[in-house]
Each structure stands twice: as structure tokens, then as C-alpha cells.
Amino acid sequence: MASCCCRPFLSSSCCRPLIKVCLSSFTDISPAELDALWREPPYGLGGTNEHFSANCIMTQGEEEEGPIGDSGEEEEHDSYWKKKEAFLRGSKVSVGEKFSSEIVLLFTGRRRSSNFPDLSLQEALRTRLRVVESNSKDITQLFKDLSARLVSVHAEEDSFVLTFKTVEEIWKFSTYLSLGYVARCLENFLCDQSFWLDPELLSELEINVTVDEEHLATLYLGLLLQEGSFFAKALFTRSEEDEDNEEQLSFKKNDLLVVRDTGQDSMWEATMLSTGSHGQVPVNAMQPLPYPFYQWFLRKYPGHAGCSSVEKELFENAIVTGSCEAIVDYNPTSPDELQLNQGDTVEIQGLLLRGLAIFIGKHTSTGLTGFVHRAHVKPLNTIPLGRQLVFLTEEEKASLAQVNPYSSEPRDSCLLERLFSSDISSVYRLDRLDEGDFMYIRNQPKHDFKGLSSARQSLMSERSEGATLYQSSPHASVSFSSPRMSLHQSHNPLPQEGECLSFNLEDTFKELDEFQEDPPLFMEENSWEGEESELNDPTLTLFNHKHFQEDFLPLYDLHCSFLWVTFSGKTEDELTGHLESVRECAKRLGMHWAHRRACFVLGRLCARKLKFSQARVYYEEALSVCTDSFSDVPLLVALLTNLTAIYLKQRMIDKLPQTLEKASALLLCLPCHIFTSTDEVELLKLLLRRSIVLGDKLLEARVCYLISSLFLLLKKTEDALPFFERLQFLSVTHSATEGGPIAPLDLNWLLSWLYHRKYMPHLALASLSLDSREDHSLHDAFQRIELFIRNSVRLNPSWKEGTSLLPAQIVVYLQQALAIAEQGDDIKMQRDLCLGLALTYQQYGALDKAVHCAQQAVETGSHINEEDVFEASVLLGWLLVLIGQAERAHSMLQPLLTSLQSTDSPTQRGVIHNLLALCLRYQGRVREAGWHLHCALVISKESGNQRNQALALANLGCLALDAGASLLAERFLVKSLCLFLDLWESPTDEEHVQTYLWLGRSYKDRGKSQDIRACYEMGLLIALHARNLHIGIFLMGYWDTIHTRRL
């Protein structure tokens, strides 16, 4: 739906002259600086995405992915300059020209089947835009949500003029453009409500948006310079021997630097991210990072990338599974590494990532598991992840699909009752005399009016926004054998359907009852003293298990919940003292596993108090204990990731090589990682910087997946949002590069909730409507409905007060819920959804569709009981009356009246009498119609229902008018109006006004012009008092027609 740029901003060769022009308009820039800024980057993504219907991504060539090495640097550099000089000779754009800082966004309505513009849709969109053009508040807010500044609206040219003031604004807008949100927001804003009621029209028509991508790239580069400093990477290596000036900085190819213009023609001031070294660098050696996301990320999370160039790459795919063959003899320097002989076969455990130097393997001969250097093996039988996975394993994709961030409790039936509270079986319906009357009256039950309004307010209340999140972190695979995998699955913390996440102690530890009820694990007072108790210490015994135990999972989780449950009666200092004694005892007795685990727990307690140096000492001691590390994989993961995170936090670069690659392998290569520390984000940031340097999009996607999951687990939703957006962007662009509908995952459902949390209703509705997942449960479908309503209310607060119709777009989500319900056996839910659809269609005048849904509700309700089918039958009868099928309605309603004779339901009998009277009037059977209305009037009087009395009298007046008895009609209508005057608190404004219109027509038949005018003016006053714009417009048009006829 959106034509947009999913490749880097700097990858288009055609934009180079424009970029030179743009930069000249911002500041004085030397030719050398221009040379560096327009250069085409060595990596990019483009293509056409067919899976996400809202995106039509323009393509641009992409350099083949692969390792970045130093070989052939000079040849590559020379060919680059020859290419640039040839381009400049053909350029006709002069540097002195001025370039606009504004950009034009064009929109076009078109048909999906042919990709041709649809002129009728285009004119309808143009007309809608003319209406909002005079009052630009709403459209300005729309583009504000899209991170753009609206300059002007040009309805006749089908365009908006936008501008940007910061790089962050361009970054967000370009992301929304690429994900299809800009087009979908315009579709939601410009399309008429009737558009959503026609499924064929909805599936065929779409809005396409386009921008000048080269112009957008030019604005991006100009804003980079305006902000003073930006991030770039080195194109080649410059050593100290090559330097002519001591002030020049030495760097290697792919090093990340922060560069700043100092006014010199050929030199920039730069700072190395890896070392902090400061100096000057040649402008032609630097390349600005092309994606605005990279600039934002490196500015917010600065640091080094921790990677070096690779001379030769043996692995063709970025992420693989399978097996490898050793190509060298290798004697390990660490006990957790595998010893290899040339020709040995190694099975990949988990994944092998080309961006990491180490992976985890299992020696097929010895059966040992350990770390393997990727440089020591070559592919033997490697298999890339499936086309529907790409950078996630099957388990991770399944667990991510189960993440349900919505905090609402299951209340599907209750939601339908609040949304579609109908009084069809208790309140009479007002007749229609001819086509000049209202199409139908939106009756609402008097006794439920305040309740309905308050229910809507309750439903829309933002107080529930503070509810706890669902846990979204992927959980760890604790072993490679199937028994342990089942163990992992039994402790999977991802919320299942309908399960809420809470971080209070009771909910966090609700699955740890075995620890709470196990008396030996609670230390009695003074039981920690004395040598005899050492060997019998249950903590020491538990910690000394040689292999992973199920009981250890709470010991390694993010909150170290084992300690706070087991030792809940002890202070933190007492707990530290006890664990220190366990450590000393284990060390003295040679209990290696107890020694390692005690050191790990002590390290976690120190890190909890921000004593990182002391924690580091404990972690290093734990790793120095000689054990088979892979006998307890979660412990090894927790140790290495926590220690590496501390090295990064304390900037201990000299110690990083000892643990960095191993921790990275455990973090990224093992599926379903379990987070053990909030500091793991430091390691993930480094790995994301590495993926930026290497241009490895699959590595970047995998890291974004883990970062966003950790932030969501920590309830840092605003921090998680940019990474989920980037992950969705990478998923979309990967589909584009593959040239087919490949989507590793669709995060639109999760993103819609995050936008909702951030109070961005336009984006929440756009992402929700683009959710293409087909594995939603019925409960998910109802949560989508509720999320849609909450954000619709933010855009139209009047619905919260019960004064406006439901948004027509709710039909789309109701149909999705019905399609899911029909696959199950909940018949009542199917009936309720059909009724909801029928009522919504009726509200918008789509009566044929309403009849179809009501008929479906009757058929479905017939399988339940008579009570459930009654309401649907009455609604169907009323709808048949509205569309003129009186005979069919009569044949359906008569048996209902017969069945009610033996029941104590007078109000329901009165409803049927009233509807039968309407059917009979249409058939010309006036006498019978009068008898039924008389019965309905008597029943309403006996029950004391004043509203139904007023309606029955009004219908009698309508019947008299139709029969030509205007004086009799006046009597009935005046009595009805007297009753309506006492019903100000009920929603009877349309019924009240319609009765005045009929009274005016009775006066017209007798030539009482002043009385006619008084009736119409009273009707208009009632409409204004009720703030019912619909009635007011109708009356003014009606009065204008009458006045024209008189003239």
C-alpha cells in the first residue's frame, strides 16, 4: 500500500547530485566532505514485499552479503574514485543551487488486482480531504503521530507537504512508511465509514503513498551535518606508519567512529568508539551509516563493536544448523572447549552464526559438548533455517507467537454485551411512513442507557493502562537432550493464552510451591554453625549436584527467585554470610559444583547491590573451578553472560576476549535464551553494534529479538518499541529481498499494543489492521476488538459518552472473530457475534448485510434454546420490515406470538404485536394492524412502560396518516408527544423528532402552515438539545425541501 524506501538512505546512485545540492544549502561543505557523504554504502536491502499488503517497496541493488576483509583495499578504493569521477562529469547539478527542505507525500487510490488507479476512490478521497483541509487540526495530529511536520495540504493535487527538523523524525517516519503505517493511517482517516462495510471493496481497493526517496535521503544527510556529529565507519585501514601527521588517527577497516566537521577541507575530527582515541581522519575514508536507526542507536547506546575483519569465509549462509568438519588439529586452552583432530565431525548445537567466532558443538566420536572456533571447521552438512524462520528457531517463533501483551482478562461475552446492548425484545419500534422518514430509529433501552454509557466509559477507561505486562522474554533451552527440553517447556515463562504476567512475589513464585513446602531447605536457627552441620547442610547438598536439576531453574532466572523463597525469613546480610560459609566449605571439601554455584549466587547478590567489582571476583572464581561446564548449561550461560556484562560495564577491554565470544555464542546460538541479568543488555548492545559494522542483517535481527524481549520482560515498553519496529522492518525487508511472501514473523499485533501504551492511536490502529497472523485464538480476536475500540475512542471521544455510533471498521474485527469462532463449538458465541454484526450493519444502513447476519444468528441460536433464538428472530423480523419484506416478516413473527401466549412475558408479546402491526400496514391490512397496535398499547399501559406507550401511540398516528385520517392521527401523535416530554433522560430524540414530523404532516394535509413550522422548529430544537447532528442535518434538509416545494 505504501511505496517507500526499505534500503539505506545512501544507497541510491541517482540521489548523489541532489545530496550535494542539499548539503550546500545547509552549510559550507568542502568537496571532500561531499565525496564522503554521497558514497554508496557496501550493504543494503531492497525488493518487493508481497506478504504485507500495505507495502509496495521500491527496490535498489544490494551488494552480496559476506565477510568484510582487508584484502584488495587499494584496488577497491581506486575503482571507487574512478566511478565517482565518471559520475560527476555527467552531472548537471551545480553545488550552489538551493534545495527545498520540504518533501511531498502523494497518495493514490488504486485496485489491488490491476495496480491501476481507481478514479472513483481517488475522487472520494479528494473530497474527504477537502473537508478536513479547512480544519487541519486532525490531519496535523495524524502526521504528528507519524513523526512528520505538516506544512500544507493540497487536496486537488492529492498531496501533503511535510518537513522534518531532526534525524530522529526522519528515522521514525521512514520506518512507518516502510511498514505500511503511513498508507494505512491515511486509509483510516480518509475512507468513508461505508468503505469498511463492504468486504469485496475492502479487499480490492487500497491507498498507495509515495515520496521522493532521493529527496528524503538528502534531507537526512543535511540534518546529520546540522546536528554537528554523526556516526561513520572506516572504508579502509590506516596504520600509524601511513600517517604523515601525528594528529591523524589510526583506524582499521569497519571501525566505528564519531566524526565532526571542523571546517577543514579534507579532514574531520573523529573519536574511535572502541578505544576512545581522538584525532583527525581523512574525509574520504569515512562513510556515514546509512540507516537513521543506526545513528539513533549508537548515539543512545555508545560503545565499541568488538569485532575484527575475516580474511576468508567458509560458511555461505549467515545462520545454519547441521554438522561441520574440523580442518585443523586443535588443543584447547580452556576445559570448556572441544579438542579437535583434522577430519573430526562436530554436530552444531543450536545455531551457528557467521557473525560470531565461536559456536557450541558436540563431538560425534567422544560425545563431549563444548565451544568450537568457527575458523577451525568447514561446513559438512549444514542447513540454513527455513524460509519461514530465517533468524528464529521453530521453538522461538512458537513462543513469540504466544506472547500476549494485553492485560485484559478474558471477558468475551461481557465485551459483546457492552458493545451491542440491544433492546429489540423489550422496546417497540417506530414505523416508517415513507422514504422521507428516518431510515430507522436507533432505539436504545431506557433502563440501560446510563448503564450502557457507564459501561462504555468503563470499557474505555485508561485506568487499566497500568496493568501488568505479559512476559515476553524467550525462555532458555537448558539442554540439548529431549528430556531436558521437556523440562524447559514445563518452565517456559512465556504467557500462554489468557495468562497475565505480574511481578509481585505471589505471582512470580506461584510455580515454586515445592520450595515453599520443603522443610529441609529452610534453615533452622543456629543450623549454620558447627562443623558437624557442614556435610548435612541442605544448601551444600543441593548445590553439589553434578548435572542440571530442575530445582536450579529458579536459581538462574532474572530475579534469582530461589533465594527469596527458600530463605524468606533471613536478611540479605545473613543470606550472604551463609552462602559464604557454603562456599568455604565446598572449597575445603573439594565439592566443585557446590563451590561454583555458591560463587555464582554470591556474585549475583553483589551485582544486585551494584558491587560489580566484588561480583566480578566471584564470577571469575566460579569459572576457574574445574567442572564439566556443559553438564549445567544454564549455569554456564548465566556465568559467562553476567561476567561479560560486568566487563563491558566497567570497560575492562583487556579481559573481554576471555569471555566475549563464548558469552555471545551462548546468548545467540542456543534457542530460547533465558535472561539471568538485566546487565545482559550491555552484551546485546555490543552485538548489535557488531552487526551494524558487518552489515549482517540476520545477526542484527536476532539481537533485536533478544533486546526487545528483555526490555518487554522488564516492563520497559518505550525502550522495547524501537527494537520491535526494527525487527518488523528487517522481517519485511527480508521478504522483499527473497522476492516472495516470506515473513519470519509478524509483530504488528505486538506493535499495536505498544503504540496503544504510548498513546499513539493512529499507529495503533494502523498496525492492528495490518496484523496478518492466522494463528490467533478467539480470545486474541476479542482483545483485538477491545484494542481497536480503545484507540478509536481516543480519536472520537464522543463514543465514550454513548453519543456516537460504533466505528464501522469494527465489522472487520467482528468478522475475524466469527471466522475463528466457527472453527470451534461455542454456538452461543457465534450467535452473539452474528447479532453484533447485524446491529452494526443496521446502524450504518447496510440492511441487506444486517438481514444476512441476523438470519445466521437465528440459525445458530436454534441449536441452543428458545430464549437465545427469540432476540435474533425479533431482530430479523424488524430488519425484514425495514427492507420491505413484510410478508416474510409476518410469517416469522406470528409463530413467536403464538408461543408467547402461554408465557408470562407481556412486554415481549407487546413487541411482537407492534412489529406485526407494521407488517400488516405494509400489506394494506389496516384494521388488523390497528388491532395489534391496540394490544401493544394496552400491554404497555399495564406494565407502566411510558416509552412503549408513546411509541404505540405514534405508530397509531402513522397508521391513521397512511389511511388518510389526519385529524385522528393528530390526536394520537399529540398524546404520544405528551408522553415523550417526560422521557428526557432516555435516548428518544430521533423517535421524538419523527413524531413531530408526522404531526407536521397531519397539519399539512389540512393547510395549517404555522403549525407545520412550529412542529419542524420543535424537532430541530430537540435535535440541538440532544446534540444530535444527524437529526439536525436531516431536519434542515427536510425543511429546505418542503420550503422549495411551497415556493
TrEMBL record:
The lineage of its organism: Eukaryota, Metazoa, Chordata, Craniata, Vertebrata. Residues 227-291, 319-382 form the SH3 domain. The keyword Protein biosynthesis does not apply. This is SH3 domain-containing protein. PANTHER family: SH3 DOMAIN AND TETRATRICOPEPTIDE REPEAT-CONTAINING PROTEIN 2 (PTHR22647:SF2), SH3 DOMAIN AND TETRATRICOPEPTIDE REPEATS CONTAINING PROTEIN (PTHR22647). It comes from the Eukaryota. InterPro entries: SH3-like_dom_sf, SH3_domain, SH3TC1/SH3TC2, TPR-like_helical_dom_sf, TPR_rpt. The keyword Nucleotide-binding does not apply. Keywords: SH3 domain. PROSITE patterns: SH3 (PS50002).
